[in-house]
Amino acid sequence: MTAQLTIEDFSLVFRTRHGTVRALEDVSLSVERGEIVGVVGESGSGKSVLAYAVMGLQDAAARVQGGRILFGGLDMLGAGEQALADVRGRELAMIFQSPRTALNPIRKVGAQIEDILREHANLPSRELRKHAIAALARVRIPDPERRYNAYPFELSGGMCQRVMIAMALACSPFLLIADEPTTGLDVTTQAVIMDLIRDMSRDQRMSTLLITHDLGLAGEYCDRIAVMHAGHMVEIAPVEELLSRPAHPYTRQLLAATPTPRSTVEGLVSIPGQLPDLRRDLPPCRFSARCERHVALCDEAPLPWTSLSATHLVRCRVPL
Ligand SMILES: Nc1ncnc2c1ncn2[C@@H]1O[C@H](COP(=O)(O)OP(=O)(O)OP(=O)(O)O)[C@@H](O)[C@H]1O
Ligand SMILES: [Mg+2]
């Protein structure tokens, strides 16, 4: 079976006035058809940079240093702008972390959904309005006929977020990149939207890369979880295995820092230390300065992947 998305040894830096930011190094990950793969990690670990790279949307300061990103058969790093534009919105869609910036401020939201449907869904013109309103209703926008005529500034932040989700899902993409899709929404709406994403994955074999800092959400909806720390992928495993037998010391700390319905304020721990400055020379293991298990071997490059099972991989010399 060929994966819907394959990321292989992907490295990317940003060249800035203040130095070179080594944002992603040797990142590998795949998403099969119908699979939901979570990417978790602290703020600044490189989740959004990875999402943009998969979409082929890169900041002018970004430089790809190596690796491959394959979407189906398409080489996303080598494809021209036209080929990328052809797949975006139809086969490949993204829910952005900041919804307002992703919407056109001077176009009514219904018209924006229709633009996508017109370009990618092969519907007769008279059907567009009905489908756009149905797309708004699916993400639980109350009174969708009225909201269809609203401009983004007339809607709350949470409502804009739902409009953007409706736009991303409108064409039933093959791959959905969802960057913190439900952060800030109330729990009921969050569940409706995540259930919708899960149903589309199951029924239409949509693949999803779910980026979130919320391990609880990832645990509930993902098939597999990948953990990122400071631009490195450090552990990948099926969800139950990652949650019950985390092998990387960082994963373990992330889990300990995740509130559960039973955790108390006193019981919660924060992750000691900070992410390293990505502009400096970094050791092979970027977690080493924060790690209690650090041994001399950890400073020897290259840092290998260890297979704990066919599906559980960890990038650590001394896994738990
Ligand atoms: N255009 C840019 N120029 C320079 N550095 C950048 C740029 N974009 C991102 N970075 C850096 O890349 C690193 C990863 O950022 P990214 O936005 O991917 O983090 P994230 O994991 O999505 O965090 P969050 O959970 O807060 O959304 C950070 O150190 C960030 O400062
Ligand atoms: Mg982000």
Name a few traits of the molecule.
320 residues, Rossmann fold, 2 domains, eight-stranded mixed β-sheet, four-stranded antiparallel β-sheet, 11 helices, globular, binds adenosine-5'-triphosphate
Between the first and last Cα atoms, what is the distance in angstroms?
A: 32 Å
Order of helices and strands: EEEHEEHEHHHHHEHEHEEHHEE
For the report, how would you describe the main beta sheet? 8 strands, mixed
CATH architecture of the largest domain: 3-Layer(aba) Sandwich
**Ligand inventory:** adenosine-5'-triphosphate, magnesium ion
Structure summary:
The protein is of the alpha/beta class and 320 residues long. The protein has helices spanning 47-55, 81-87, 99-102, 109-120, 125-138, 144-147, 157-169, 187-204, 215-221, 239-244, 249-256; strands at 5-16, 19-31, 36-40, 62-71, 74-75, 92-95, 175-179, 207-211, 224-229, 232-238, 306-307, 313-314.
